[in-house]
Predict the 3D structure of the following.
Amino acid sequence: MKVPLLDLKPQTAALEAELHDAFTRVLRSGMYILGKEVEEFERATAALIGAKHSIGVSSGTDAILLALMALDIGPGDEVICPSFTFFATGGCIARVGATPVFADSCPVCFNLDVDDAARRITSRTKAIMPVHLFGQCAEMDRVMALARSRGVAVIEDAAQALSARYRGRPAGSMGDFGTYSFFPSKNLGAFGEAGLLVTSDDALAAKARLLRNHGAEAKYFHKLIGGNFRIDALQAALLGVKLPHLDEYTARRRANAARYTTALSSIPGVCANPAGSLCAAGGARDACRPGRCGIALAGAYAHNHHIWNQYTLRIVAGEQWKDPESPRDSLRKFLTAREIGCEIYYPRALHLQECFARIQPSLPSLPVSELLAEECLSIPIFPDLTAEQQDFVIGAIRDFMTQHA
Ligand SMILES: *Cc1c(COP(=O)(O)O)cnc(C)c1O
């Protein structure tokens, strides 16, 4: 049996007639950039996120860039973000000429370690950018309290977390800006590139809208130096067809995650996250005392509505692991040999990336981020994963642990 990491074809097939209608509507409208389709999508997403303003943009990366530009962040400024994240988080900070200041992550939920972020604030810090990694919100009460006490802005990188909630509040609605991606592998995927920026601040929204379109208030009269960050009408129309189904996609991902957690927990050497543990307070890995190797399951905190963009395992080497290859890389090969899709998100933390080493000669050592990059492996969790496929994945992990634990 083949189990892909992600298969979007069933999701698309179920909506094919409606998607064709949306496509035809845009085709015949003669309006291909911004316009009515985009405005409708912006209204629907603003309502979903509970933000006053929603601004459709060209990608999740451009949403981050636009947020930084709207906050006038540039050379001489510092922005704190986690090191264990997708490249765009840190890359955009450097692209506006500011310095990304990388902080460590929580070993349980993979999100920003707020104590470590607090230690890295200086007089040059202009913003903190928490990432809601893999679909679970960062510890936002603490992030907001820290930012407000130091007078710095918060940009939530919610690329993987559209419709996730933190203590009932939607991901992306708590900071000054929330940014989202509709890259096809995200929980709401476009048919190409697209992203979104939200804010409830009228002035920031107006500025971001100008910057999205070369800073022009009237055509060819440029108030600000912006860029082309516009979303296609076609992507907005197609996303508008999928948006009403997002809750159903999420419910299926959550059911798949619960099924994994129950089934995998019963395998010797696999440790579920102790219920009720809090950010950076130990957790599955600490509970996991491997001989050769153990697997720590991702923690979903009770106060978070986790939307499981990824289901991520940590494969932990014990003292008796003698193979030069890490147990994570062994499991990856083992699953690949059985035609089970899996991926390492992310194999190298940002503070160790060549491009940042060049601009910042002395980068910090971030032990949790470095460990996560060596131990993490994400397994299939997409909404249309069948019970048979899931059992096949669970069976393969059971076999691996029988041989290697
Ligand atoms: C996907 C992603 C982005 C970038 O989104 P694109 O639409 O691919 O540009 C940014 N940050 C995180 C955490 C992401 O997962």
User: Anything to note?
Assistant: Residues 59-61, 85-86, 88-89, 131, 157, 159-160, 181, 183, 195 surround pyridoxal-5'-phosphate (CB under 6 Å).
